């Protein structure tokens, strides 16, 4: 069976490195995903498990 056929976007296999670059993940988060999945993973898994951290610190009173 040919993997190049039409598939849903959630079934696409992505490079963790490319995913981290495209979604501007911190190096620490990229390394966490690499430890979880290795060098490739489905887009669905990456989107479900990636954590982006805000650049704006949260104040204690808001």
UniProtKB/TrEMBL annotation:
Highest rank taxon of the organism: Bacteria
Protein name per its UniProtKB record: Uncharacterized protein
Organism: Rhizobium croatiense
